[in-house]
């Protein structure tokens, strides 16, 4: 069946991978898990490629917003690929090495200074559900379905999968999702604050691009700072480090910061006297 989601932009491929696609158009990077025959379940190699693509998008100065999605319309992502769990139960790459590299990806999305938007058609389940959760915004199609399955398949994400979920939708609902492993439709997800909006499936990309375009018109530095601020307390000292690093970057750009650097290069004492001690 052809994809019922209308394309909103003339996407151009910017990189080639086996398990994902990476496209760009008009300031937006679109990264899609491309394993629709497995409802876009990820194996360790998929996650390594997502990490690479996220890095590429972060450092591409043309990119202002990143969209994370799944190929087709049946699934955003169904979590870890259960067929690559080895004898020890963990997710193995093709060399037999066990990985939980999706945890690195989760943190990479949170630390990325550009907004990351989850564009969700179909299932966002298990580790795939956590992936949309860690994105800054979630735009869902009306066919989207959400849920955790870990306790059913011998797994759990007690990190961001539990704590960030509770901070997003409240403790009771988060515990319900994990302790009962039920599925929730798009309207239920919207009602509990799990997603930002729900649109007809055909309009999913158009609406997502509209949200991205709104952000592209805003100050990149202000978005960067506010994202880091939102994540700082949940991410603890690592979150404060991210926020503080942004502040340092801003200070470097100031005349006062440059005076320190210039004085050192010119082998003279810095003259900070001309900078007011602001109240
Ligand atoms: C997602 C579904 C509800 C979709 O159901 P539907 O009926 O539409 O489709 P099928 O079930 O027929 O699936 C079609 C096709 O895809 C294969 N498939 C689907 N999901 C997976 C998967 N996760 N892994 C491997 N393969 C998958 C399915 O076998 C079919 O192929 P056939 O060849 O058999 O036809 C439903 O598919 C479903 O419930 N899927 C499983 C969801 C799931 O349990 N995911 C894993 C949860 S655990 C997890 O994701 C996880 C990952 C991590 O990396 C963690 C890291 C750290 C801590 C915890 C982690 C964690 O919990």
From TrEMBL:
Binding positions (hydrogencarbonate): 148-150
Reaction catalysed by this chain?
Answer: 2-succinylbenzoyl-CoA + H(+) = 1,4-dihydroxy-2-naphthoyl-CoA + H2O
Where is the site Important for catalysis?
91, 252
- Protein origin, superkingdom: Bacteria
> In which pathway is this protein known to take part?
Quinol/quinone metabolism; menaquinone biosynthesis; Quinol/quinone metabolism; 1,4-dihydroxy-2-naphthoate biosynthesis; 1,4-dihydroxy-2-naphthoate from chorismate: step 6/7
Alphabetically, which GO biological process terms does the record hold?
menaquinone biosynthetic process
**Which key words tag this protein in UniProt?**
Lyase, Menaquinone biosynthesis
Q: Where does substrate bind?
A: 39, 78-82, 91, 123-127, 149, 155, 252, 267
Gene3D superfamilies the record matches: 2-enoyl-CoA Hydratase, Chain A, domain 1, Lyase 2-enoyl-coa Hydratase, Chain A, domain 2
Which chain positions lie within coiled-coil regions?
none
Q: Which SUPFAM superfamilies match?
A: ClpP/crotonase (SSF52096)
Q: Does the keyword Ion transport apply?
A: no
* EC number per UniProt: 4.1.3.36
Q: What class of enzyme is it?
A: lyase
What CDD domains does the entry give? Answer: crotonase-like (cd06558)
List, alphabetically, the GO terms of the cellular component aspect: cytosol
Cofactor(s) needed, names only, are: hydrogencarbonate
Check the record and name the InterPro entries matching this protein.
Answer: ClpP/crotonase-like_dom_sf, DHNA-CoA_synthase_MenB, Enoyl-CoA_hyd/isom_CS, Enoyl-CoA_hydra/iso, Enoyl-CoA_hydra_C
**What Gene Ontology molecular function terms does this protein carry?**
1,4-dihydroxy-2-naphthoyl-CoA synthase activity
What role does it play?
Answer: Converts o-succinylbenzoyl-CoA (OSB-CoA) to 1,4-dihydroxy-2-naphthoyl-CoA (DHNA-CoA).
Q: Which HAMAP family match?
A: MenB (MF_01934)
What family does this belong to? Belongs to the enoyl-CoA hydratase/isomerase family. MenB subfamily.
Q: NCBIfam families per the record?
A: menB, PRK07396.1
Per its record, how is this protein called by name? 1,4-dihydroxy-2-naphthoyl-CoA synthase
Please name the source species: Rhodocyclus tenuis
